[in-house]
Amino acid sequence: GITSKTLDSNSEFRLVFKDDAIKNDFTKIRILCKRNPYSFDLKVSAGNESKEIDIFNESQDSLTDEIIVKLDSGYSEYKFSIVSRDTLQTSFEIYGLSFESESDRGVLYTSVGINGAGHYSILRENLLPRQLKILNPDAIILDVGANDFYQRGMDIPTFKDNLISIIDLFKK
Known about the structure:
By secondary structure, the protein is of the alpha+beta class. The chain has helices spanning 128-135, 156-171; strands spanning 4-6, 12-16, 28-33, 41-46, 49-53, 66-70, 77-83, 92-100. The strands form two sheets. It has a four-stranded antiparallel sheet, with no helix packed on it. The chain has a four-stranded antiparallel sheet with strand order 2-7-4-5, with no helix packed on it. The chain is built from two helices and eight strands.
């Protein structure tokens, strides 16, 4: 539900976790981002490891919004730096990050949308169907909150139609 985009080839961002949040076996980073010839490249640094990723040409099964970065260990701090290697590269657009274990055990929690958004906003997320195929969830939990009717009251037919449309979207 959130996209972050930069046109600055000198941009970077960091993620800092509590020491026990990312255990040593979380060595796989799934990056969902726009991949086209105009995308800046990315450098991922953590601990004494550093990986440079050619966003457009990174070998994958097919050109999707997904890049997988594998590290030797999990860390409490990660730096993501934009790298410009070509004058055609003009931007970097990221949709999300997932820190995962290669052992593929346990629960992987992914959140759709932002705090305060109503269910109708899920229906406007045009990348969601494609990204659901990438994430391939075993289960989806739809949390019904108060944001759809908090200030304007509840329009029951619209609320019901939105929920049915969201469930249909997830089923597809």
